[in-house]
Design goal:
Strand content: 25-35%
Number of strands: 22
Number of helices: 9
Shape: extended
Length: 446
């Protein structure tokens, strides 16, 4: 048994799925399984606080997506969280065909290393396309120009021409992003193909709200992935644009990072396993995120919802490269009374309201009123709410003989003039200075 600082753990894990692995990296565990739950404790009850406690688990790999639902009832309302896990993906797995549009910023703010990093990233990106993909490139500064008039099959001839076109790009002019975004959104929206947009820029813009609004309202079925170029990109704009676009934000601050980060981004873009995921809650549901999108390898899909009534089942559908997929979850088998589901939904609701405020779809007064109402109901911190810690005072045994009395306050009582030698030191300094002046006058007397 460890002495001194020690800790113990008692975890009730409801994974929702059969597990292939459950372990702690630095500690031995005692695990008891009951249905879908695992009760986890330390093997020796307590352990010395010499290393972090890291618990890891992995679902059993399958060839079809796995889905689980967790529910909670709070103040008469039903809340649910759906979790969908992608299937195990191999190199031989069929790929969903894609339409991918690259937008590259060639404005004056990109001059120098930034434009070179962007061009190198773009050249590497198009080399990872396959003949099943279609692509186009849009460059913008004060004006917008496209490589092709429409999406083009990514064959060898098209890719070689694109690389030559990229090589000749130069940074100059203003930064007019909106026409470039509109041009990308106006390309064909083939629902049988993944729609992906990769936006490379330093984000040096002043009309952020207008751009956010355009992304929020016109993106359609596409996903927007932003790549911040340069040593100091506009992180707020890039992150928020990716969030509205249901994509991710990648930053490339040095030419040495180009190959690694571009490869990682395109590995993700190429790993979509199912598209057009749709959830039928069988009742009225307020769901976040509202647009579900695709299922990517290695990423769990989480959807939170407030339900008008508790349904008996939930239907989930989607499409893979091999055809349609459908599964049904009986809520009798769902994990009931899972604490935190309602709070998770409320956080997603507040995030949605904040996004509406960013795009100008809701004014600040209405935003504050709604956020405060949700935060107070679910006891959450937000931009307008916080917690106050109140410490109750409990009398101790030593206070038993104390008597409380009121004493009059002092009014017009002079304070004692004591405490330092400041007056003496001040006059001594004056006399010394006068003596110095007198001696100086005597020495220079004719």
């Amino acid at each position: 048994m460890p002495t001194g600082n020690a800790f113990s753990v008692n975890i009730s894990l409801d994974s929702g799925f059969p597990l292939s692995r459950l372990e702690a990296l630095y500690h031995d565990l005692h695990i008891e399984k009951s249905a879908q739950r695992h009760q986890i404790r330390l093997q020796d009850s307590r352990a010395a606080m010499a290393s972090d406690f890291v618990l890891q688990w992995a679902p059993r790999p399958t060839h079809q997506p796995q889905a689980a639902v967790f529910t909670e009832r709070v103040a008469g309302d039903d809340y649910a969280m759906l979790m969908v896990l992608p299937p195990h993906q191999t190199k031989a797995s069929a790929k969903i065909p894609r339409d991918i549009i690259f937008i590259i910023d060639t404005s004056g703010s990109m001059s120098g290393p930034s434009i070179e990093q962007a061009k190198q990233s773009l050249a590497l990106a198009i080399e990872q396309l396959t003949p099943e993909d279609r692509f186009n490139i849009i460059a913008f500064e004060s004006n917008t120009q496209a490589l092709y008039n429409d999406l083009t099959v990514a064959n060898r001839e098209a890719l070689d021409y694109a690389k030559h076109w990229i090589k000749n790009l130069a940074a100059n002019g203003g930064t007019e992003m909106l026409p470039a975004l509109k041009a990308a959104f106006n390309h064909s929206d083939d629902k049988q193909r993944l729609q992906q947009i990769v936006f490379m820029t330093d984000g040096a813009v002043s009309n952020e709200k207008e751009l956010f609004s355009e992304i929020h309202t016109s993106l359609g079925h596409a996903r927007l992935f932003t790549v911040g170029i340069g040593s100091a990109p506009n992180h707020f704009f890039m992150r928020k644009a990716a969030q509205f676009g249901r994509g991710t934000f990648t930053t490339i601050g040095d030419v040495k990072e180009v190959a690694h980060k571009t490869h990682a981004l395109f590995k993700k873009l190429d790993s979509a396993t199912y598209r057009d995921i749709h959830i039928d809650w069988q009742t009225h549901a307020e769901q976040y995120p509202k647009k579900v999108g695709e299922l990517y390898a290695g990423e769990a899909l989480l959807v939170a919802s407030r339900l008008s009534s508790r349904p008996k089942k939930i239907d989930i559908t989607g499409h893979s490269a091999l055809g349609p997929w459908h599964t049904t979850i009986n809520l009798d088998d769902a994990s009931n009374n899972s604490p935190g589901i309602a709070s998770h939904w409320a956080r997603q609701k507040i995030a949605q309201l904040e996004d509406l405020g960013v795009t100008g779809a809701i004014d600040e007064t209405a935003l504050k009123s709604q956020v405060v109402s949700i935060a107070l109901k679910h006891q959450l911190m937000s931009r307008f709410t916080s917690f106050i810690a109140i410490e109750p005072l409990t009398p101790s045994a030593s206070d038993a003989g104390l008597i409380t009395q009121q004493k009059p306050t002092l009014k017009n009582v002079p304070y004692p003039q004591t405490g330092t030698w400041s007056n003496f030191a001040w006059w001594t300094g004056i006399l010394c200075f006068m003596g110095y002046l007198l001696m100086h006058a005597i020495r220079h007397e004719p």
